[in-house]
From TrEMBL:
GO biological process: phosphorelay signal transduction system; regulation of DNA-templated transcription
Species per Swiss-Prot/TrEMBL record: Streptomyces zinciresistens K42
A GO MF term: DNA binding
InterPro entries the record matches: GAF, GAF-like_dom_sf, OmpR/PhoB-type_DNA-bd
Keywords from the named record: DNA-binding
Upper lineage: Bacteria, Bacillati, Actinomycetota, Actinomycetes, Kitasatosporales
SMART domains linked: Trans_reg_C (SM00862)
Signal peptide: none
Entry annotated with the keyword DNA-binding: yes
The protein, known as: Transcriptional regulator
Entry annotated with the keyword DNA-binding: yes
Length: 425
């Protein structure tokens, strides 16, 4: 395969390939093995789908309707670029009897537009605005998988995990916030087998880049110098936006900046050593070398010493979530939480902060009992095994899919000692 993200190699017979994929899908659902020639990206998605408890005969649930849907769409950043997306994709969708769709970062469809007859067919599988098509609940599909892996992806026919979706082919590309790099959602084109052509993947990718460029132009100018911004949630390497440039930091430098951003008064060398290193044999010389490298990267005198501190306040997504939780703004805190803090970090202070932040938010969500907020957490990678949240979700939204997942989790937690859950291979 020249491009692993494209569904069909040139010259492939689509009908024959569909038959091969259906046999492979049946093999996977029966035995948990993925035979060739299933693409690696699809095989990985099938395995994630199975681990999330998705069944091949599932159906999408509609989570937002009427006023709730309208209010959510109006506030979503992608609403500002929908006129551009319609201009670029609308005619292509209508003339080709396809659909254009836009989802948010959780795989929830916000807009579905296009050919009327195709829309009526898609209604039968709840491919409609307000429905959740995240990979964790609807298995392999272009919009859900695109936001899951943060890559443009094409899904052809029986590559879809759920059988009801297998008559369709789709291509989707994620759209990012031009300032922070965060995934805002994805643009998708859905229709027949003809969309398996490489051009459809390139097309949605170009539309996504155009949307990002438009968003960058729509950012209002600041009256004065921008305060540096640190994004460390849901990523192992933090991003620092300062003086108009974005810097990707190493894991160690990310840990240092996260800790210093929360301590404007600064930390001594000994305090930083204890905060960063489990190994007591690490010497101050090692820490000073890391700080010297970080100072060169940051420039402009942002990092001072004796004690080590930031000379300018740095706004981080960590402190934003903390502030919103402290003031009772649970919905706003959940919106700002993009995942565990530096999930690969083993720095003692970061591990403690990561646990405290996640526990504080999840307990607030459980207390709030909002089904959409609980579903967002439960269907996220960090919440898929969170028994307390799944129990809270089942109490307020006892759908068959939710109850099935809760039952599976409870069975796993009460399994005999020595029993090990093994994902399908």
């Amino acid at each position: 395969m020249t491009d692993p993200w494209v569904a069909l190699e040139p010259g492939t017979d689509p009908a024959e390939h569909i038959r091969v994929l259906r046999r492979a899908h049946e093999t996977f659902t029966a035995a948990g093995t993925v035979p060739k020639p299933v693409r690696d990206v699809v095989a990985a998605s099938w395995r994630r789908s199975a681990r999330a408890g998705v069944g091949p005969d599932g159906t999408a649930s509609v989570e937002l309707v009427d006023g709730d849907l309208g209010a959510y769409r109006a506030e979503h950043p992608l609403a500002r670029v929908m006129p551009l997306i319609r201009e670029l994709m609308g005619t292509f969708a209508s003339d080709g009897e396809h659909l254009l769709a836009v989802c948010d970062a959780h795989g929830r469809l916000l807009w579905v537009e296009g050919h009327p007859a195709t829309r009526r067919r898609a209604d039968g599988m709840n491919f409609v605005p307000g429905a959740r098509w995240a990979e964790s609940v609807m298995g392999t599909n272009a919009p859900g998988t695109a936001v899951a892996v943060d890559r443009p992806v094409q899904v052809f026919a029986a590559e879809h995990f759920i059988r009801q979706v297998q008559p369709w082919t789709c291509a989707a590309a994620p759209v990012h916030d031009p300032r922070t790099g965060r995934v805002l959602g994805a643009v998708d084109i859905t229709g027949g087998d003809g969309l398996a052509h490489p051009h459809s993947l390139g097309f949605v990718q170009a539309v996504a880049r155009a949307a990002e460029s438009q968003l960058a132009l729509l950012v209002p100018p600041e009256a004065g110098p921008e305060a540096p911004e640190l994004s460390a949630l849901g990523r192992d390497e933090a991003l620092l936006l300062a003086e108009g440039r974005t810097v990707r930091l190493s894991r160690r430098h990310s840990e240092i900046l996260v800790l210093l951003a929360r301590r404007p008064e600064g930390l001594t060398g000994d305090e930083l050593l204890c905060a960063l290193y489990e190994d007591e044999s690490v010497t101050p010389v090692t820490l000073r070398a890391e700080l010297a490298r970080l100072r060169r990267i940051l420039g402009s005198g942002l990092l001072d010493s004796r004690p080590y501190r930031l000379t300018t306040p740095v706004e981080s997504d960590v402190t934003m979530v903390e502030r919103r939780l402290e003031t009772g703004l649970v919905t706003a805190a959940a919106a700002a939480y993009r995942g565990p803090l530096l999930p690969g970090s083993q720095a003692p202070a970061v591990v403690r902060l990561r646990r405290r932040l996640a526990d504080g938010l999840r307990m607030a969500l459980i207390a709030r009992r909002d089904p959409d907020l609980l579903a967002d957490w439960a269907h996220a990678p960090w919440g898929e095994d969170d028994l307390d949240v799944w129990r809270a979700l089942a109490a307020v939204r006892p759908t068959p899919a939710v109850c099935s997942r809760l039952s599976a989790l409870e069975s796993e937690l009460t399994a005999p000692p020595g029993w090990e859950r093994r994902p399908p291979r």
